[in-house]
Amino acid sequence: MAQLVVLAGPTAVGKGTLLKALLDKHPEIWVSVSATTRPARPGEQDGEDYHFVTHEQFDALVAEDGLLEWAVVHGSNRYGTPRQPVLDALAAGRPAVLEIDLDGVRQVRRTMPEALFVFVAPPSWEELVRRLEGRGTENEAERERRLETARQEMAAAEEFDEVVVNDDLDTALGELEDIVLQAR
């Protein structure tokens, strides 16, 4: 059975960009699609970027133990990892990656301690702020909420098995690629 790789890091650090580049090079890698109660952003597709669900549908997944982990993120919306697809990918021997928040990481560590936990870090706090502001997808209050969460996440980097600094995309991608492919 393959080893699960759990990827986390602060908002705007480039986790999604790294994962997309990794999948472009290695389509055999399976990446979990999270369920969320937040609305889709422009261009996001249900079932590809996230499973966009109502609060009632999310409650049902929690009640049925259908989520490997779940959390309230940025104080407003819930995100979770559907359990069965993860177990199916691992049983099939596919390299499997979860991209989740810090609370989710801690839940997975309790239930699947054999997973490999990877933190994606920015080259500096200033660069993280610049990237978040450059996205232009959040208003000022949301940016502040996300930055407060990012401070907490960065303070927890020592809880992870590996840290990949996303300063140069190609370098960070190479490091992540080595980690995920060795976890087979």
Quick gist of this model?
This protein has 184 residues and is of the alpha/beta class. Helix content is 43%, strand content 21%. The strands form two sheets. Strands 2-7-1-8-9 form a five-stranded parallel sheet, sandwiched between helices. A four-stranded mixed sheet has the order 4-3-6-5.
Walk me through what this model shows.
There is one protein chain. Helix content is 43%, strand content 21%. By secondary structure, it is α/β, with parallel strands linked by helices. The protein has one domain (4-182): 3-Layer(aba) Sandwich (Rossmann fold), CATH 3.40.50.300. The strands form 2 sheets. The protein has a 5-stranded parallel sheet, sandwiched between helices. Strands 4-3-6-5 form a 4-stranded mixed sheet. Helix 1 crosses helix 7. The model has no long low-confidence stretch (mean pLDDT 92).
Radius of gyration: 16 Å
Mean pLDDT: 92
The amount of beta strand, in percent, is 15-25%
Q: Which stretches of 5+ consecutive residues score pLDDT under 50? A: none
Fraction of residues in helix: 40-55%
Number of helices: 7
Distance between the termini: 8 Å
The CATH topology is: Rossmann fold
Sheet with most strands: strand arrangement: 2-7-1-8-9
What's the β-strand tally?
9
Global morphology:
globular
The CATH class, by name, is: Alpha Beta
Identify the CATH homologous superfamily: P-loop containing nucleotide triphosphate hydrolases
CATH architecture: 3-Layer(aba) Sandwich
The biggest sheet amounts to:
5 strands, parallel
Task: Give the structural class.
Answer: alpha/beta
Report the order of strands and helices: EHEEEHEEHEHEHHEH
Estimate nothing, just give the exact number of structural domains.
Answer: 1
